[in-house]
DNA sequence: CTGAAAGCGCTTACAG
DNA sequence: CTGAAAGCGCTTACAG
């Protein structure tokens, strides 16, 4: 293959200087006269010189790439939210002089504990894991010899640093808000054994009930997905008795906007209007929040801040491996829309 | 910074052989006895050796990265479709031994003809440009010294290879279908000067009209966005006369599903029901197709095939720079749903 | 079957 | 202010 690469050597030869001088001039280091520096820069531009990052990487032993691993199940047409977060991360990385490499983790690779190529081939200096992975895979990641951080989930049994939205407090606030609007019979929708987020949101909901002396009713905890994360048909309490609204909750705390969206469809199909008959709140403030009719009152997750902390941390950790972050909780923000009715 | 890197040197030293032998053994090359080869592989695994791609990249002058440039305006919450395509591309690249680096092109960088970092720093061996860029930027890309391909748009004035869906034929088919259902007064929705896709879809619509001896009515060509791509309020024909349905088209060919979705809302707000009063077809089969009520009859774009051609081509082109692809048209596929009424 | 030498394009540490 | 030497971790071409 023909290559017409311009290197520092070429510039040096043309000017009768050494590559050392060219290197110093191009990176604005001391030890070259201003005059020569200018001449070198001009010639470089004129010759179409491009800096070879690979050589630098070789020298430093650092690729200046950060890997972002996302489990495939979180990247479908309907759930492209993490891809938007990835975009954000890649932008922030670039501003910091790094580049992101996306690695989609298939269900199969996750199950078979397949080591990601980006790690096995030393493609990256650090890893951001975006989206809950299995226990086994967490352990695999933990043994990897580079800085890593979990984003949007954590694991209580490993000490990998994690950045999550304040799920607990968010659901707590949302439930408090429903109660302030006069609701007392409030359901929670989500499989509370499937991810740490869903579980923590559930606990926040529960805390709010406790504080208001409302007894937790297990019949009002409605699962939304199987253990593999696949959505299942929602079962309304008393769904076999469509005409007994007195047994229905007056409000639903959904673990995410998409489920809130699906729940509303289900409620409508059973003859319940939202928010007239039932109030519904979501979580995430993603695209489903404004696709739903009515638009959802929900908890906005501050992904920009979360991404920004993740990027800053992972880069800092490359130069200071002893850095510890622990578990960072990023506060969300209630967005008031039209899915909650005041029943006082 | 402490580094505990295992290199081929370390393995070689432990075994009292040369790095050449280790290199050959690990990459299954000839010239090492099977016995020694096995011993080397075992020791490598045991020592936790990871292959250093950067060294290989240095040697070959090839990074084994492919850059994917997406203009920022195509990556919003509501339009994350290209990010899903990016995911697909990154998966295909990984299968082929490459990695994708996403580079989001901001409006500002596009306007100021800022050279992408991934190019200036020789981070990538090839470039996939996903989504229409400005004329000026096309020229900048054209001058770049590496293989590149346009995905989902093309430019008639440059000879960069391009892979697009068959917009022309797709809109032609969709319009034919509407006519077969008895429609004759058919509008087109889209700014026909904004992108090659919208323009070609318009021309396909027009060809169908011509073939059926239906006169093109310029009042039925409705713009949907300004020259910067920002959506504008849709103006229905005769929208000032809400009660004169006799002047309304009975069908609308929309340049994309999102606009079809917005159009339906607009129609509803003016008192027109879809598909009872007006039929609507979309294009893309993206998330808006099933968010809309009714669900849209639309043209499914075969992005999997398009991505796969793009990846294959760019990789082939790295080893055979003289390769030419021209403009590849990938056929779409009509998806029949509920937004078209037979009016015969 | 095995290995010494050279080189990919930079940078660092040192000498002048 | 300027540059010769060495080295980052591999691979290729050649010699034995």
UniProtKB/TrEMBL annotation, chains A, B:
Residue ranges of domain HTH lacI-type in the record: 6-60
Keyword Nucleotide-binding assigned: no
Pfam family, one: Peripla_BP_3
Taxonomic superkingdom: Bacteria
Keyword annotations: DNA-binding, Repressor, Transcription, Transcription regulation
Designated name of the protein: LacI family transcriptional regulator
Organism for this UniProt entry: Paenibacillus turicensis
């Amino acid at each position: 293959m023909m290559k017409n690469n311009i290197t520092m050597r070429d510039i040096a030869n043309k000017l009768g200087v050494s590559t050392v001088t060219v290197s110093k001039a191009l990176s604005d280091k001391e030890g070259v006269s201003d005059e020569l520096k200018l001449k070198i820069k001009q010639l470089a531009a004129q010759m179409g010189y491009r800096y070879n990052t690979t050589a630098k990487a070789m020298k430093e032993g650092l690729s200046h790439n950060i890997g972002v691993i996302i489990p495939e199940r979180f990247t479908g047409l309907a759930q492209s939210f993490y891809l938007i977060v990835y975009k954000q991360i890649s932008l922030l990385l670039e501003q910091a002089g790094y580049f992101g490499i996306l690695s989609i983790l298939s269900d199969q690779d996750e199950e078979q504990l397949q080591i990601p190529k980006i790690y096995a081939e030393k493609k990256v200096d650090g890893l951001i894991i975006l989206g809950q992975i299995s226990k086994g895979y967490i352990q695999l990641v933990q043994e990897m010899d580079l800085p890593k951080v979990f984003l949007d989930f954590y694991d209580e049994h490993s000490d990998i640093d994690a950045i999550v939205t304040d799920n607990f407090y968010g659901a707590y606030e949302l439930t408090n808000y429903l109660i302030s609007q006069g609701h007392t019979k409030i359901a929670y929708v989500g499989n509370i054994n499937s991810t740490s987020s869903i579980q923590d949101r559930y606990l926040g909901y529960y805390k709010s009930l406790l504080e208001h002396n409302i007894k937790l009713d297990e019949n009002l905890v409605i699962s939304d997905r199987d253990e593999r994360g696949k959505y299942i048909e929602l079962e309304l309490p008393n769904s076999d008795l469509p005409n007994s609204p007195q047994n229905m909750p007056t409000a639903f705390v959904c673990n995410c906007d998409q489920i809130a969206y699906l729940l509303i469809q289900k409620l409508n199909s059973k003859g319940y209007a939202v928010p007239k008959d039932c109030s519904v709140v979501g979580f995430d403030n993603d695209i489903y929040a404004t696709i739903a009719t009515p638009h959802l009152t929900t908890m906005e997750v501050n992904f920009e801040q979360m991404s920004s902390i993740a990027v800053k941390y992972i880069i800092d950790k490359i130069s200071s491996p002893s850095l510890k972050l622990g578990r960072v909780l990023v506060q969300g923000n209630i967005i008031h829309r039209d899915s909650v009715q005041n029943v006082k």
